[in-house]
Structures are given as structure tokens and as C-alpha cells.
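Section 5.1 Outputs to date
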Amino acid sequence: MATVQAAPDYGLDEAVECRVLSPGQPPLFIEARAGAFAGAEEAVAWVAQHHAALDRLIERHGGIVLRGFPIAASENFGAISGCFPQFTGGYQGGAAARRPVAKGVYEATQRTGDQPIPIHQEMFYLRDYPPRLAFFARKVAERGGETLIADMRAITAALPPAIRAKLEAHGIRNVRNFAAKTGNSEETRLMDKRGWDFAFYTDSVDEVNAICARRHMRPHWHEDGSLTVFNQEDAFVIHPSTGERVYRSGLHIAHFYRGSYDNTGAAAELRASQQFPSGAFLGDGSELDPAEDAQLCAVVDRFTYQWPWQNGDVMILDNLLTGHGRNPFEGTRATEVALLD
């Protein structure tokens, strides 16, 4: 990584130095100098003191990575993320329910190591979503497992005109399926076999209906007790601070919904049996043609980046400007997340 401007030029101090992977490419790495912090409390105090500057840098670069800070435990990460306003919407009705690890801290995912997670913006299928996310690499995998990020500004600018026109004209329809109540708090390998009680953190149909109304989803209850939820969204969202119009959709991961996340073929078989197959579609229910789908995926891939993670890394992303995903991994991996406002 190449050193860029001195830390004071970013509104920070000499306790850190700032680097980027490449000019104009997210994120900004903010690295603690040797001996800058005696422990986690000093590091948290530094983040709190520089909160306003860090806010500007997250917006400017799409995200920051705090590296070399003495952050080793979930509670330390919770204190760091607690320096920023917290998103209170929670994960109710989300694609992947998360178990809490510490105050304000959740496991990042229960997906097994052989399954890639494609680039997406957290809760892209909901109108009510966290504006920012914080990630903590409590333990990096022995091999692979990098958290990928994608520059959604660049992706938006590079969208082929024909695809942009379809997105503008139709918007996006999101369809997600949940099994009947299972009483199980463990993620199943097949996403659509998770019980709706797991995803909505309740076993009350009335409460699920209320959550759907609050989060602009339309529930469809099946005779077997399973649930399908629908929602219509614009394909582009205006950033509340910068005024930029940014692509926000899961349309580029249609192949993931078709079952590519599961190499046994069971996910594709399950989807074929569904009355309303899970996925992201154009607003009229249609899909991009194969050539357009390949073009869209190529644009996302062009602006997707990765680098070797280090234990203790804390990454804070603007959830509209920067997408994220995960490479498959071998060994053990512990990554945690906090939802920020």
C-alpha cells in the first residue's frame, strides 16, 4: 500500500498514518503508530475524540479500516462502534438472523466457509437499512475469508445504458422465503429453510405482520405455515449527505439466489419447488437477459477489492457507497458486525 497525505491533512493526529490501496480506491487505512495506544481504552478515547473527522473520511472514501489499534475482544469492538450513532432497526426480517455477541455486536454470518458471499449492501432488500456498518476481524481464517468491498459509486457510474434504463423504468422486486416455525436458532445451509421465527426473532404471526408493515414488506402466508415476503424498491437511492444517486440492489447476485451459494444442488432444487422463487428481479418480475446479467456482474467485479486481513482490524463502511462480501475460507474465522446510523 502507498502512503498518501500525512494524518493531520485528514483531520487526524500523529498517533496514526493513513494509506490507500490505490489512489481513489476505497477504503482508507488508518494505522496506529507503534506505541501510540497503551490499551483499548486509549484507542476508544482516540476514536471518540476524532469522531467528526472519521465521519468525513468514511463518507469521502466509502469506508475506513482501523489497523494496529489494540482491539482484541468483542467488548473492545463494541466500545469502538459505540462511538458512532447506533442503528436501532435491528435484523428483524433480515436475510440472515444474527446472534448477539456483546452489547451492540453481532456475529457477521453463520454461512459455512465453503460458501462465498457475493457483494451486497446490508439489507439491500429493505427500505429501512443501516446507513453504516462496522466489521471486526477478531480472528482471521488460516486461508481465505477476506471481506470483499465494492465501490458502489464507481459501479453506478459504469452501468451500461441499457441496464440503467431498465433499472430506472422498473425498479426492483425482492422475493424472500422462510420455512414454517422451526424453533431453531442455528442457520441452516439452505437459506430458504430457515424458520420465519428465527428470521423475525418472534413466534407470533401478528408480530411478523406488524414488522412487515413497518419495513414495507408484503407477507404471503402459505398453508404449510411457511412465509414469502415481497417488497418493491427503487434501484437507485439518494445518499442523504452527499446527494449522490447510487445503485442499491441485489439484481447482480441473481445467480446466488438460483443456488450457486450451495454446491450440493439442493438450493437450486428447493428454489424450483417454490411458488414464488426467492430472488431479486426487475420490478415487473422479469430478469435481465443473460448478456445483460453478465455485463452487470462484470461491472461489479471490476470495482471489487480485497486485501489480507489482520487480527484486530476494524472496518467501518458507508452502507450505500460501499458494498461488501466474503471469500470462502478454510480453518476458523471470527468476524463480528455492528449496525450504525
